[in-house]
Design goal:
By secondary structure, this protein is mostly helical. The protein has a domain of about 230 residues. Helix content is about 75%, strand content about 0%. The chain is built from 17 helices and no strands. Helix 7 packs across helix 9 and helix 11 runs parallel beside helix 14. The protein is elongated, with a radius of gyration of 38 Å. The protein starts with a helix and ends with a helix.
């Protein structure tokens, strides 16, 4: 699927931000990320509320699933009724993700093909610029007389692969005096500096191989490796904060297990893809997750806490009702036991056993005294 219809406007927008952000490519990506996240904030709040609603009705869902475990159709009908009663849409929490995935894929192509999407060059112009840069790079490599480096234009172009536009721009950034080789296809004012943000080469792909990280080009690959680690950690923190605080029953249920697994799947995926994508995409992810951490802290404090007084009141009301019912049952049981079983009053039932015996002895003594008195008179 082609995302060119999104890539062209996003590329122009990123170039505009780059121009006003002091031609700092990393800063442009950070600003771009914040703008995207702010635009998605209403949907994110909706997703957060949907997650909270799901947490509230999860015990009811578990009950329905247990009750109709042998009847799938009845289970689905009851679940739909439950969702309608609580105004809950199961797909409501997926909308921000469905919007962000095309954005991530589009941004990938914008970063990989800056000549096409940021500068709006035609394919003929792109081929000319890449060939000019490859030819100049091949001549430099040949002059160095080093082993295992590409010496011809074809070898250089092949080694650049899908990142050929980034490599060509990076080459002319490092050798602006060779721009004449491009034959006017690329002006100096159009150059994009991928290493303008903290020395990170945001057009490069990070490596996990120690001989590359700590090799001759360690100044490029070691900072990129650190960027990958930071991005993975921020992904984990963001996932952990976004997980709802479930009860013990919910944690042991399917939803709880799914939430726990998602908390680790996100960081693992970030780690895996970070060694396949340009560092500019990784910076976009990391910035997005940092934004998500502060966003989640805000939502937890001001959105989640708003509902806590109402939940506490409802819980207190339910507790009083249960207590009242229990008291009535206890009283009725006590009265029945007092009148039917032993013939004693409720007050006598509540006396200690010692007091009952004492009272009984007093009564029998009086009766015995009357009888003895009657015999003496005779």
């Amino acid at each position: 699927m082609s995302f060119d219809f999104l890539a062209y406007p996003l590329g122009k927008f990123l170039k505009f931000i780059y121009d006003i952000a002091f031609e700092n490519y990393g800063l442009a990506i950070i600003i771009f990320t914040f703008i995207v996240r702010l635009a998605l904030l209403p949907l994110t709040i909706k997703q957060h509320k949907s997650t909270m609603k799901m947490q509230e009705i999860q015990p009811l869902i578990n009950d329905i699933q247990k009750k109709y475990k042998d009847d799938r159709e009845a289970m689905n009908q009851e679940l739909m009724k439950l969702y309608q009663e609580h105004n809950y849409n199961p797909a409501g929490g997926c909308l921000p993700l469905l919007i962000q995935m095309p954005l991530i894929l589009t941004l990938y192509w914008v970063i990989v093909q800056p000549l096409k999407f940021m500068l709006g060059k035609s394919m003929e112009a792109i081929d000319g610029i890449v060939n000019a840069a490859a030819k100049a790079q091949a001549s430099i490599n040949s002059a160095l007389h080093l082993e295992n480096i590409p010496m011809t234009v074809e070898e250089v172009t092949k080694s650049w692969g899908i990142h050929r536009e980034i490599r060509a721009l990076s080459f002319f950034n490092e050798h602006p005096d060779m721009l004449t080789e491009a034959g006017g296809l690329l002006e100096k004012s159009e150059l994009i500096d991928f290493r303008s943000f903290l020395g990170l080469h945001l057009g490069e792909v990070a490596s996990f191989q120690p001989n590359v990280i700590f090799g001759p080009e360690w100044k490029i690959y070691l900072p990129l490796f650190i960027l990958v680690i930071v991005a993975t950690v921020t992904t984990f923190l963001s996932s952990k904060l976004s997980m709802p605080k479930n009860t013990s029953d919910q944690k042991s249920g399917p939803a709880g297990c799914s939430s726990n697994s998602m908390m680790y799947i996100g960081p693992i995926m970030t780690l895996m893809f970070s060694f396949r994508l340009p560092a500019g995409v990784i910076l976009y992810w990391m910035t997005g997750y940092v934004f998500a951490i502060f966003q989640q802290l805000y939502l937890n404090k001001f959105v989640l806490n708003k509902n806590k007084p109402a939940e506490a009141a409802a819980a207190a009301g339910g507790g009083k009702a249960r207590l009242s019912d229990g008291s009535k049952k206890k009283e009725s049981t006590g009265e029945n036991n007092g009148t039917i079983d032993s013939g004693e009053s409720v007050s006598e039932k509540q006396l200690p056993s010692g007091e009952k015996k004492k009272k009984g002895k007093t009564g029998s003594g009086k009766k015995g005294g009357k009888k003895k008195g009657g015999k003496k008179k005779k």
